[in-house]
Amino acid sequence: MKKSTTQRGAILIIVLWFIVIIIVMVAALAGEIRLSAKIVLHNKIILDTWGDTLQALNAAQMELLINRMPDPPGEEDVPLEERKNKKYRFNGQKLELTYPVPKTVTVRIYDHASKINIGRLSKQRMRQLLEKRVGKEDLETLDALEDAWEDWIDRDELKRANGAEKDYYETLSPPYEPRNSRLETVEELLLIKGFDEVFKGIEIDTVFTVYGNSTKLNPNLATREALMMIPGMNEEIVTKILTERRKKDLKNFNDLKEMMEPEDFAEIRSWLNFSTSNFYTIAIQVKNLEDIQNEDIQNEDFDTEESETPDEETSSKSHEYQRAYMITVQPKGYNKLPKILRVEPYGMLPDTRHENIPIEEVF
Question: Under CATH, domain 121-202 is a member of which superfamily?
Fold first, then answer.
């Protein structure tokens, strides 16, 4: 009897262990299935997102071609003072394109007349930018930076008094050589001796460009960062410019005069013009699922006061730099897509905080 009881106890323990093993195996299998399902879902989201990005990218390139075509009939009926330059739409604002794009993405286009062209800056202009960053009183630092700049872009290996040539850059880790020619990329600016400290904390891609022929900015297109870099500019003036151009085009310098003091205007004016370029950066930003859902809700309640006024959380987010898929292009005609000059899968969008500032708060 005792032996039979012991056998039954052993069998019970074996059965229990078997059940435990089965439960563990089922749980592990269920976990693996859930993980596989998440991987499949994430891969689907990535593929869908990439497809939406390419669709928006093609639509944006078509928009650049359409923009080069003559105005449609009826445009001449709009009074001249109310007529808006269609090229000024490419100032980084969110665009509604001629061809529809998925609601999962936001499209922005930046004309490179919105940035300072460091590829064509004169010695005097560079000195003025350095003075804005360093201060006019620090002559020793300014002279050293100016010499380093000149040594980088000249075609010889002769070092200026406070400059730097090949022998200096080869001692760095990792070593490299100076361009000895005009800059070919914006990032190259930070390779020049001392310039990484001068522009520390600045997203230089939002300020500078190497494309185009002009060294001046169009205030209808300029990024906040580029305007802030101009000597004489301050936060108040920049905010007024960025907000005013949402209401109407800034057609001439008279439209700018009343936004600033006369002594500031004289200095700022030399950095501005009203021309455009033939170089553009297209920025495609994928929205969060939460943002898409909020937009759907706002579209349903578009006549409510809450949907018209950005909340504090939205405003604070706009102060942060955001990433986007960006390509820089140059249109070459009406019958073919623009030439692609640069691709930045994780490019940085310029500051867009002015988009959430009510116009009446500024004026």
Answer: EpsJ-like (1.10.40.60)
